[in-house]
Write a sequence for this structure.
């Protein structure tokens, strides 16, 4: 049975970055990923703040080798019919980037391997058991042991929930996405409609991604291509942008709710990172930034647990995620509150307060 200091489950940005930080600190780390990086993933627009985080992680050259497309900023049709622009030209961090998300995730996983991480692809974690030495994990490839366990399984938070964590979900948001062949300009575009808002952006190489962000209980008819196209016509600025493109795939539905994984107690050596710990609304534009930032915080907490120098490290990490969640929910309410044209529509009415009257799901 293989033994490690840390097992990280999930090789998205948060998991791979956490694994790399830990390996660079001299820990024996295994990174488990149930896919083989062979399924399509929705494209990603990276905020300028990502630049410094990638440099800190030591992967800037690997990142630029992906030939990402510069993102010049954001145009938004939000709160009124006239598009407003927020240019990255004056951003102190530089420009943002449009990336092929699958290639980006592969790059970060490879960077973890180059730091000494053992990467196992196509491996599902079937059972997790705690013992005196830490954790015993059963996978399709056998059993392994680790002193510390990191849940980086995204919104599913599949490891943390098995270990007693409760997923608190604040909304029903989903993305109904489609990919198009053909270039779009270098801006992210968001445009509100009564049932939600549209996101569109270029995705290398030579594609454009468009997504209707709406609530799951409002979207069922929109999954049909004809209905999706009809809804797109109701977003004239977005429709005009895509007029010269050709559909490649979609529409497909991806869950995108805001949620927090809550722990009743910090008495077991595991933690969650990235979307598994706190998943945010894509309107924040901060998903990857948060993943990379929390990966370092998670690694520092894990190192403190391993050497026993800071018994309260795990509790401090969880308290910081709670503060981050509170701040995020207030910022989300302010942003959605700037759009008042659709106040009577269910999607917008649900977002008039910081919190719903009660969480939509706890479990």
């Amino acid at each position: 049975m293989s033994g490690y200091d840390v097992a990280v489950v999930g090789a998205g940005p948060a998991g791979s970055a956490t694994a790399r930080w830990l390996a660079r600190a001299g820990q024996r780390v295994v990174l488990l990923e149930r896919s083989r990086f062979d399924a399509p993933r929705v494209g990603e627009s990276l905020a300028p703040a990502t630049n410094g985080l990638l440099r800190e992680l030591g992967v800037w050259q690997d990142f630029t080798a992906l030939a990402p497309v510069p993102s010049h900023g954001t145009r938004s049709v939000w709160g009124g019919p006239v598009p407003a622009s927020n240019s990255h030209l004056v951003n102190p961090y530089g420009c943002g980037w449009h990336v092929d998300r699958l290639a980006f995730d592969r790059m970060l996983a490879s960077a973890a391997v180059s730091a000494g991480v053992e990467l196992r692809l196509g491996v599902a974690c079937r059972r997790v058991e705690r013992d005196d030495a830490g954790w015993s994990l059963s996978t399709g490839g056998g059993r392994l042991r680790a002193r510390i366990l990191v849940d980086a399984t995204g919104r599913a938070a599949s490891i943390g929930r098995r270990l007693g964590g409760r997923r608190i979900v604040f909304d029903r948001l989903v993305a109904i996405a489609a990919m198009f062949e053909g270039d779009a300009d270098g801006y992210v575009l968001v445009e509100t409609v009564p049932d939600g808002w549209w996101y569109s952006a270029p995705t290398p190489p030579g594609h454009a991604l468009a997504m209707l962000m709406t609530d799951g209980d409002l979207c069922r008819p929109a999954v049909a291509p004809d209905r999706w196209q009809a809804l797109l016509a109701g977003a004239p600025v977005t429709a005009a942008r895509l007029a010269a493109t050709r559909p490649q795939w979609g529409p497909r539905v991806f869950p995108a709710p805001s949620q927090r994984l809550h722990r009743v107690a910090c008495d077991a050596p595991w933690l969650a990172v990235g979307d598994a710990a706190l998943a945010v609304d894509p309107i924040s534009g901060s998903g990857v930034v948060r993943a990379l930032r929390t990966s370092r915080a998670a690694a520092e907490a894990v190192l403190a647990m391993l050497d026993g120098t800071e018994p309260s490290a795990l509790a401090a990490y969880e308290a910081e995620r709670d503060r981050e969640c509170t701040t995020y929910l207030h910022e989300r309410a302010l942003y959605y509150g700037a759009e008042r044209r659709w106040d009577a529509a269910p999607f917008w009415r649900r977002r008039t307060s910081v919190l719903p009257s009660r969480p939509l799901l706890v479990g």
Q: What stands out?
A: The mean pLDDT is 93. The first helix runs from residue 13 to 24. The CA atoms of residues 24 and 115 lie 6 Å apart. The two ends are 32 Å apart (CA to CA).
